[in-house]
Amino acid sequence: MNKDLSIVIPVYNEEESIPELLEWIFRVVDTHNISAEVIMIDDGSTDTSWSVIEASSQKDSRVCGLRFNRNHGKSAALQMGFDQANGEIVITMDADMQDSPDEIPELMKMIKDHNLHIVSGWKKKRHDPISKTVPSKLFNWVTGKVSGIKLHDFNCGLKAYRIDVVKNIHVYGEMHRYIPLIAKWNGFNRIGEKVVEHRARKYGTTKYGMKRFITGFLDLLSVTFVSRFKKNPMHFFGVFGSLSFIGGFFITIWVIAEKLYRQYYHMERRDVVDQPLFFLALVALIVGMQLFLAGFIAEMMIQVNEKKGDYLISERTDETKGNA
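^ thats the sequence. predicted structure below, dont judge the formating
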């Protein structure tokens, strides 16, 4: 039987916070009469987190535990949770208790009342050092400009989704911070935002360092390129290939024409091969052809590996006919 809510929680070395977090979650959902399941994915923890999850699952059947054989990262854990989720609404949160379960009812209400695909949390007041808040603001500003999505906190772990969103997107690598962008490129563009409480860490230490801000921008370039050009790579390679080839072609014509002009009027001239500009033109011609070939090969690979599920149907008019 489908639930009202699935709560997906990646876990990595959070043995101390799990019991308290689950108690808090169930207190909230029981108070608001929400039928819920909690899916906890142990991402290769080296402490006793898995034992705690197992004990919690035996104590309450609403807890489902999954365990990776090693650490694969937050994106892999979220994707596994999305695959297992059965609730009409899916909420993600971190296991460190910096996300408040008290936000759950309002997040669900926003999804339903405003017909949104995603509601993203915004930790407006953060309990983090300036070494994390300043790079985070820069990261969010750049991501907003590139994606066109007006969110203040892309990396907030507390988010709510309609079930059809998480079932039709694929999160990999370190792309979890770009789920709103991935969803948008798949047609789920009704994205809202809610100011949420950011609580000071009570147990353990942070698992993220400055490295995530460096790799984050590379991931942004990757997800933007893949999302925009995965169906028509020739639109990318072809444009740059054309510019490079045309530029090289006209430079070559100009260099040759200049020599012929000077030769005709008996002016001082250099051999074509003595001019650096000629070799620059040849490089541009070669690069242009290579980009074209890359585009053609990418198009052929798409034709071979085309997946029917890549095109999503949100509504149809013949549902009743199909059941007749």
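Residues 234-264 form the longest helix (31 residues).
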